[in-house]
Specification:
Number of strands: 0
Largest sheet: none
Shape: rod-shaped
Oligomer: single chain
Strand content: under 5%
């Protein structure tokens, strides 16, 4: 009975990890798209002749 429970627990953990990794991939893609949009759409009128940043930090 214990080995069966361990196998089921392992399968549940692997399924959960797979789902979490898939969600993290989608989050990473969304952040990459936002970063690229910010890089492309940043303003060119900043003081000192430098290009401005689209973020504040």
């Amino acid at each position: 009975m214990v080995p069966l429970l361990l196998v089921l627990l392992l399968a549940l953990l692997l399924f959960g990890a797979g789902f979490a990794i898939k969600i993290l991939w989608w989050v990473a893609v969304a952040v990459l798209v936002l970063w690229l949009l910010g890089f492309v759409m940043r303003s060119t009128t900043a003081g000192g002749g430098r290009r401005g940043r689209w973020y504040r930090w």
